[in-house]
């Protein structure tokens, strides 16, 4: 079989290399010592920090010229009415950066928040992440990584406004102050930013700026309503799929039934007979596959034609995966020596020893599809020597390079417009740019045939559910020896699962000694001081895999937090007290856990009959989330009633968004427990096709959620993903308290 | 030519009769507030009102609604209940990605039109037919209750 990523466009690694070489402040590849990709990246810098990477010429010595990402003109526009439009280099697909990033700019600008608007930037040099050197969102890093950069932009803009006002008012800049969108002189004269804007942008751009201290914040730290709330509550928000262009054609794909399958022959006649259908084109797809594109004057005719087109598929040499067989294969692999990630003494496990208890556990996790609400789509207008793309992209630089590669263009010949996206959860950060490459192939084929005009490719929900790029399936095998107090004496841990990043340009950053850190995160960097001997296996499987919101933590947190609970009970200790003792050196874990415990009433309030608490605490993306869940059983299945969350994300930029992110991530995390939340394959074909057979959480599944944030003034950490991992183990721990039964697989049994 | 009323105005379209209302709205009329999510009536992103009843536009052939009144998210704020629901949505900052919210709002308006004082269980039952992958259910629940209160 073929490895999934061998077809990566050659232009991409080169483009990424180039951007790394152009890194600011000499922070080249050395900062990429270890990088764990999430729906992006959690990043562990050796040679510098995200903050250092974004600091401009404010350091000692001669000031360096400002880089594009430090220039206010790329990020701020002010119109004559004083409306401040902040252009952000990140996509917003729900996580709230299009409110939070403008908050950072507005805070330092002293802008009038009621006049602040936000726009998403196209792919561009100024919008490349100063740390990753590509334009992207991932690893819950947007606020952490932009904290310094966007405030500096705001402070520079403010200084330029003050400079312009100084000339107009004939008052030294040092005597002027700013407030709510105006520059104010000591005598009370004031000039609005709208009046000053034109002159301000002609002012020199200061390199060094002094930023506010947290005590001076007026906006940061306050619960602020989303800037997009009204547009998204009235149908006025346009998403990528809503793009309207003159002459736009809709493209619906015919994908092979097995990954890597190829069209052998096809009869387009029945499809072409559908009114509105214009073409049926054979196109190369990602991963060596070959499929068909149906071009029509709208989605409905194309969709109808797809049912009618007759295709014979060539599946020769294509591995046909079977989930049941895969589980047996993984189970057998877990009993063989793997790649050693962490060494520890496991001799206590070699033979039964008096006085030592034993936990022997196997955990299994299925493939998971992301299924964002907005079906995957993109629009392309290819004009031979240039091209415009409209897409809800999380990896603008990557997608731009991939499309350019297909079309034989340079990346700068591809204009990529970032569209508001209806969810992503990792699916829009695809190193192969799979669906964009498809659309580009269609555009290329049409152009070669002399057809012009833009196309919009829309994947149906079935295309999405069956389209691969899943959270990989995993099997964990754990052997633990412990004493009567629940103290761990030995711990052998084996994880089996496909590598997400091997074969991608990210491999060098994430794969260490043959082991993918995006699979081991959460076990390998566990805050618990256990002597874990960790080995991994990365089988090659003909199923494309990808990060899924919180990545490795989706499975590692479940394994670790249920085992910790089991150890506490084995040692007859309270699960909270047991965790507090082990986490004593981790102040943020303790603070988050204590807050959740205190606010939940755990250990104090008497629960209704038939209910039990379940606790879990886990750090991911530098943020600690603790959940105390209240659960009962109904018809043999858990019902989640109420969750109290304690969150330590350092400084809370917008507490309202943090609350919403935790509520939403919690729902997504509990979704992993629901029977039917699994992608399975039989004879190479995905057995699910839509939300009728791939279970996702519904309104009824959502518990009451109370979110509490640990106060802090330290630089902010990630919030987009950290709420996912600890909920499934919290529920499982409550189930164990209620039934004595340990649930070791997600989803839970039906 | 198929005739119906759209958001209070007479409308005619020349499309095959089996074309779903969703694609008439989106592709023929350029009204993209109503969203495509699943195509099989399980997610509710395409929820519209037809003669006041909520319907899944993705599986409703346009010929089946000839002569009837279609109301979409673009106009639902024109009545008292729709406006209260939209205001509650903004007040509670319900949206995240926002893609499902047109359908959520149409479902909430249908619920409150039929049942002005829904219990928690009523809201759970009525709103469970509309999926949200961002998991905004907690806030949707609060907003529906708040809208009911505002309308009381």
Low-confidence stretches of chain B: none
Number of beta-strand segments of chain B: 5
The H-and-E topology of chain B, N to C, reads as: EEHEEEHHHHH
Which range does the strand content of chain A fall in?
15-25%
Structural class by sheet pairing and helices of chain B:
alpha+beta
Helix count from the secondary structure assignment of chain B = 6
State the shape of chain A.
globular
Major sheet summary line of chain B: 5 strands, mixed
For the secondary structure, the number of strands of chain A is 30
Q: For this entry, what is the oligomeric state of its chains?
A: heterodimer
Q: What is this structure's SSE topology?
A:
The complex is a heterodimer of chains A (750) and B (152).
Chain A: H1 11-21, E1 34-38, E2 40-44, H2 50-54, H3 72-75, E3 76-78, E4 84-88, H4 97-109, E5 116-120, H5 142-169, E6 177-179, E7 182-184, E8 190-192, H6 193-202, H7 229-232, E9 249-254, E10 262-267, H8 269-272, E11 277-284, E12 290-296, H9 299-308, E13 310-314, H10 323-333, E14 339-342, E15 357-365, E16 377-382, E17 387-391, H11 396-407, E18 414-418, H12 434-448, E19 455-458, H13 461-465, E20 474-482, E21 488-497, H14 507-510, E22 511-512, E23 515-516, H15 517-520, E24 532-537, H16 553-570, H17 575-582, H18 587-600, E25 611-620, E26 623-634, E27 637-648, H19 655-671, E28 681-682, E29 685-686, E30 704-709, H20 727-739
Helix pairs in contact in A: 1-11, 4-5, 5-6, 11-12, 16-20
Chain B: E1 2-6, E2 9-13, H1 21-28, E3 47-50, E4 53-56, E5 69-71, H2 73-76, H3 80-91, H4 101-114, H5 120-127, H6 137-151
Parallel strand pairs in B: 1-5
Antiparallel strand pairs in B: 1-2, 3-4, 3-5
């Amino acid at each position: 079989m073929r490895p999934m990523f061998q077809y990566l466009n050659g232009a991409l690694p080169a483009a990424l290399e180039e951007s790394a070489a152009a890194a600011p402040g000499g922070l080249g590849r050395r900062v990429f010592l270890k990088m764990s990709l999430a729906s992006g990246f959690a990043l562990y810098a050796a040679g510098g920090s995200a903050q250092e990477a974004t600091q401009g010429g404010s350091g000692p010595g001669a000031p360096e010229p400002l880089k594009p990402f430090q220039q206010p003109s790329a990020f701020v526009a002010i119109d004559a009415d004083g409306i401040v439009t902040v252009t952000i280099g990140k996509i917003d697909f729900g996580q709230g950066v299009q409110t939070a990033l403008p908050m950072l700019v507005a805070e330092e600008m002293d802008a009038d928040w009621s006049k602040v608007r936000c726009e998403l930037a196209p792919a561009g040099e100024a919008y490349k992440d100063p740390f990753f050197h590509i334009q992207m969102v991932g690893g819950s890093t947007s606020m952490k990584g932009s904290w310094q950069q966007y405030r500096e932009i705001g402070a520079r803009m403010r200084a330029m406004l003050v400079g312009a006002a100084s000339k107009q008012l004939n008052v030294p800049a040092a005597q002027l102050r700013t407030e709510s969108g105006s520059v104010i002189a000591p005598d009370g004269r004031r000039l609005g930013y709208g009046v000053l804007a034109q002159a301000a942008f002609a002012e020199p751009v200061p390199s060094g700026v002094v930023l506010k201290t947290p005590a001076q914040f007026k906006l940061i730290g306050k619960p602020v309503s989303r800037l997009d709330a009204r547009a998204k509550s009235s149908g006025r928000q346009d998403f990528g799929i809503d793009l309207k262009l003159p002459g736009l054609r809709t493209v619906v794909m015919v994908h092979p039934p097995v990954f890597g399958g190829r069209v052998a022959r096809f009869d387009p006649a029945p499809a072409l007979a559908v009114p509105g259908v214009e073409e049926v084109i054979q196109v190369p797809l990602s991963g060596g596959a070959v499929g068909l594109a149906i071009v029509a004057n709208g989605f409905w005719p194309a969709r109808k034609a797809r049912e009618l087109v007759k295709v014979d598929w060539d599946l020769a040499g294509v591995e046909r995966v079977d989930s049941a067989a895969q589980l047996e294969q993984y189970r057998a692999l877990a009993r063989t020596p793997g790649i050693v990630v962490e060494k520890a003494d496991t001799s206590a496990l070699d033979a039964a020893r008096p006085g030592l208890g034993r936990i022997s556990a196997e955990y299994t996790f299925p493939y998971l599809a992301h299924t964002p609400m907005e079906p995957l789509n993109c629009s392309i207008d290819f004009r031979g020597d240039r091209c415009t793309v409209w897409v809800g992209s999380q990896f603008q630089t990557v997608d731009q390079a991939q499309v350019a590669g297909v079309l034989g263009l340079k990346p700068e010949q591809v204009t990529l417009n970032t569209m508001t996206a209806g969810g992503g959860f990792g699916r829009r950060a695809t190193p192969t740019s799979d669906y964009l490459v498809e659309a580009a192939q269609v555009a290329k084929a049409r152009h070669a045939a002399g057809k012009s005009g833009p196309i919009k490719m829309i994947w149906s929900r079935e295309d999405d559910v069956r389209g691969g790029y899943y959270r990989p399936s995993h099997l964990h095998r754990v052997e633990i020896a412990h004493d009567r107090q629940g103290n761990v004496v030995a711990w052998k841990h084996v994880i089996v699962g496909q590598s997400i990043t091997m074969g991608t340009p990210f491999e060098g950053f994430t794969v260490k000694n043959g082991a993918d850190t995006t699979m081991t995160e959460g076990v390998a960097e566990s805050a618990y001081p256990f002597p874990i001997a960790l080995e991994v296996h990365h089988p090659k499987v003909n199923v494309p895999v990808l990060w899924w919101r919180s990545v490795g933590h989706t499975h590692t947190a479940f394994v670790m937090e249920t085992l910790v609970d089991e150890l506490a009970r084995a040692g007859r200790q309270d699960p909270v007290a047991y965790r507090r003792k082990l986490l004593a050196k981790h102040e943020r874990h303790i603070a988050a856990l204590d807050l959740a415990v205190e606010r939940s009433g755990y250990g104090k309030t008497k629960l209704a009959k038939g209910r039990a608490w379940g606790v879990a605490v886990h750090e991911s993306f530098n943020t600690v989330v603790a959940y105390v869940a209240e659960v009962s059983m109904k018809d043999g299945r858990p019902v989640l009633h109420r969750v109290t969350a304690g969150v330590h994300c350092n400084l809370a930029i917008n507490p309202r968004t943090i609350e919403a992110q935790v509520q939403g991530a919690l729902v997504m995390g509990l979704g992993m427990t629901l029977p039917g939340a699994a992608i399975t394959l039989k004879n190479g074909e995905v057995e699910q096709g839509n939300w009728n057979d791939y279970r996702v959480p519904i309104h009824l599944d959502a518990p009451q959620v109370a979110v509490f944030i640990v106060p802090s003034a330290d630089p902010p950490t990630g919030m987009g993903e950290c709420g996912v991992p600890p909920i499934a183990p919290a529920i499982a721990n409550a189930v164990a308290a209620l039934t004595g039964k340990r649930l070791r697989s997600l989803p839970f049994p039906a | 030519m198929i005739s119906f009323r759209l958001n209070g105005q007479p409308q005619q379209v020349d499309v095959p009769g089996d074309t779903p209302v969703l694609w008439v709205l989106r592709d023929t009329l350029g009204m993209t507030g109503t969203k495509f999510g699943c195509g099989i009536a399980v997610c509710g992103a395409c929820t519209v009102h037809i003669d006041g009843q909520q319907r899944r536009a993705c599986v409703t052939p346009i010929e089946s609604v000839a002569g009837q009144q279609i109301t979409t998210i673009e106009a639902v704020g024109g009545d008292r209940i729709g406006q209260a629901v939209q205001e509650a949505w903004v007040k509670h900052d319900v949206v995240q990605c926002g893609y499902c919210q047109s359908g959520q709002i149409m479902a909430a308006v249908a619920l409150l039109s039929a049942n002005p004082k829904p219990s928690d269980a009523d809201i759970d039952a009525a709103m469970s037919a509309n999926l949200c992958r961002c998991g905004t259910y907690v806030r949707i629940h609060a907003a529906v209750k708040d809208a009911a209160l505002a309308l009381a």
